[in-house]
């Protein structure tokens, strides 16, 4: 071996040794806030930093914004990406939810804009949906590929987190309703008048394009989830209305975002400790996985190890 070659090898070894033995732990958060661009620009937040995560399901919609708000470590994510780049059908829902789980989030407040299907839910009201009718055909499960799980979804949102946020909204003088049925459609076009009337006949109170998919995945991830729905319009069921337009939605949304920020801030300032007896969000998987552990392929075990502890390496 020539001296030159030895020297190259030595240099390589030195470079190798200078790398840390263990990868650094990703920054942690306890509360997730999931919503539109700019939501993290909230009074009182500090120690902001951006974190880009890679997940087995691909890239989340954007970097996660971590910070401290009212004494809690929070993680924000813009579901459409900053600049609103992904349509409801194009969002990588699984990567987004997985990212929150990677950060250690165990309670999450989602902010979604919706149309109202009821006269008494007015634009600029805040509604905490507790039921969904899902018309979409998206990937809305982490399971499959050799591991089958059927989670319980009778009560698809966290009752204690929803109740708390609703109480906070009322205390701030906001017109707010606890409990509503959210019809989730694929979009991106809004409903026809016939569809809008049909959704009302089905018992729908709200129409939106994102929350049902998210609720299913957050439940599989055993994260307490509530959806704070900002009503922006009456959809197209009212015969004398001109029908919903993007301009109308964004005008009401701007007003509602400031209300949403006020609710989030106060909800965190007064957040009671999690009561395990008051919801079952964090213990759904043990009874849901039906595939025998020894039948689950190694690649699937690896993807699901964050959710199913016995699939973790070494167990
Ligand atoms: Zn819960």
Question: Short summary of the structure?
Answer:
With 315 residues, the chain is an alpha/beta fold. Helices cover 29% and strands 19% of the residues. Strand 9, helix 4 and strand 10 (206-208) form a beta-alpha-beta unit.
Can you walk me through this structure?
The chain has a domain at 111-311: Nucleoside phosphorylase domain (Rossmann fold). Helix content is 29%, strand content 19%. Strands 1, 2, 3, 4, 5, 6, 7, 8, 9, 10 and 11 form an eleven-stranded mixed β-sheet that branches. It has 315 residues and is an alpha/beta fold. The relative contact order is 0.17. The N and C termini lie far apart (45 Å). It is built from seven helices and eleven strands. The structure holds zinc ion.
At CATH level 2, the architecture of the domain at 111-311 is 3-Layer(aba) Sandwich
Q: Which structural category do the helix and sheet elements fall into?
A: alpha/beta
**Helix share bin:** 25-40%
Small molecules bound in the structure, each named once: zinc ion
Largest sheet: 11 strands, mixed
**Range of strand content:** 15-25%
What radius of gyration results from the CA coordinates?
22 Å
The oligomeric state of the chains shown is single chain
Poorly predicted sequence stretches spanning 5 or more consecutive residues: 1-22
Given this structure, which CATH class of the domain at 111-311 is correct? Answer: Alpha Beta
Q: How much is the average pLDDT?
A: 88
* Count of separate DSSP helical elements: 7
Q: Which term fits the overall shape?
A: globular
CATH topology of the domain at 111-311: Rossmann fold
Amino- and carboxy-terminal Cα gap: 45 Å
Tell me the CATH superfamily of the domain at 111-311.
Nucleoside phosphorylase domain
The tally of beta strands, per DSSP, is 11
H-E order? HEEEEHEEEHEEHEHEHH
